[in-house]
Amino acid sequence: MSSFDAHRYRAEFPNLRINVHGKPLVYLDNAATTLKPRCVVDAVNAYYVTGVSNVHRGVHFLSEQATAAFEYSRQVVRQFLHAPKAHEIIFTKGATESLNLVAQSFGRQFLKKGDEIIISYMEHHSNIVPWQMLCEQAGCVLKVIPINERGEIIFEEYLKLLSRKTRLVAVVWVSNSLGTVNPIKAVIDQAHRRGAVVVIDAAQGVTHAPTNVQELDCDFLAFSGHKVLGPTGVGVLYGKEKWLEAMPPYQGGGDMIKSVTFSKTLYNALPYKFEAGTPPIAEVIGLRSALEFLQTINWEGMKAYKQELLDYGTQKLLSIDGVRLIGTARDKTSILSFVVDGIHPHDLGTIVDQDGVAIRTGHHCTQPVMEFFKVPATARASLAFYNTKEEIDVLAGAVVRAKEVFHA
């Protein structure tokens, strides 16, 4: 049994003290967005209350203070990812924008008709649609790594897809709908052997394990602030300097330029070339606070505790007649996607909400996964380090009550 003390951290999350329908909130929707610790809320409030100003533009005190806080946040993200250089960290509005940036900037610059892009069957829509759009624009060909009945990529099939035409591989680290942890280091190594560039969707991965982009040797990595205890509206794209230098800007506007005339524009240096307009300043500062908070946690202890919650939740749900898990990978993080015979997931979500339980129901922006498993949707309980076994018991009880309501 893990010695990790979840209750020590629960006190840091104000939302865990609220009631829903007269009952204590049981928040099990962490794969959609995590709760925010008090320090993140305070950091965002402090910017708006005592330090609000734009960055990189003013010479007055507040602007210089905001700029210093913003750029220090970039250093914190660099350290969190173990990136070599701070200017390899680009702030975006989320993982979705980060992936679109790579597709439109790198893709249109370096990919041409007939080039092949490989993704996997379990990708989030944000790592499918941008590549489909690029294929339509540039005439590239999209290849898809199949998955098995456990929800794991079939690595041998991936190797078969790799060819001299493969120019880019874009894969998710941790599936948001299945919990599968993909062998991304092996994926990256095999792609590089063929000279392909690799993009990692790490929206769920950065909370699963410490991230070292140098050890992974990925070319690009994207994640969202709101899934790593930070605010909404902010994300990160890490890119190797050699690629970012060679890529054209994704958007035009203020701050991404050195000079503008009607005949020619000279673009700014990294990272500002990709950060047009006023950035999400308060959100970046809040993200820094979130990452600093995470760094105070024993990651090995946290990972072991989340595995314990996953094992316990798996046992509790499977003990209920008619419950079937979707996604049973051998390497899996704390996500429980399931269906209940005779109850649509949306109806199930509505019933368990009456007991204060927040789960996600739907296709989770992974419609191909739902099609593969021949289900319209799943109910998903996604567990964080501040969740407890007692909360899983409440979920299980609520599922049993739903079965009674629907005579399932």
Q: Could you walk me through the main structural features you see in this protein, from its secondary elements to its overall organization?
A:
This protein is of the alpha/beta class and 408 residues long. It folds into 2 domains: 6-30 and 298-405, Alpha-Beta Complex (Aspartate Aminotransferase, domain 1), CATH 3.90.1150.10; 41-294, 3-Layer(aba) Sandwich (Aspartate Aminotransferase, domain 2). 39% of the residues lie in helices and 17% in strands. It has 14 helices and 17 strands. The strands form 5 sheets. A 7-stranded mixed β-sheet has the order 4-10-9-8-7-5-6, with helices on both faces. It has a 4-stranded antiparallel β-sheet with strand order 13-14-17-16, covered by helices on one side. Strands 1-2 form a two-stranded antiparallel sheet. Helix 3 (61-81) packs across helix 10 and helix 4 (95-110) runs parallel beside helix 5. It is globular and about 70 Å long. The two termini are 34 Å apart. The mean pLDDT is 96.
Summarize the structure.
The chain has 408 residues and is of the alpha/beta class.
Number of spatially distinct domains: 2
Structural class: alpha/beta
Shape: globular
The number of helical runs is: 14
The CATH architecture of the largest domain would be: 3-Layer(aba) Sandwich
Features:
17% strand; Aspartate Aminotransferase, domain 2; seven-stranded mixed beta sheet; 2 domains; four-stranded antiparallel beta sheet; 408 residues; 14 helices; alpha/beta; Aspartate Aminotransferase, domain 1
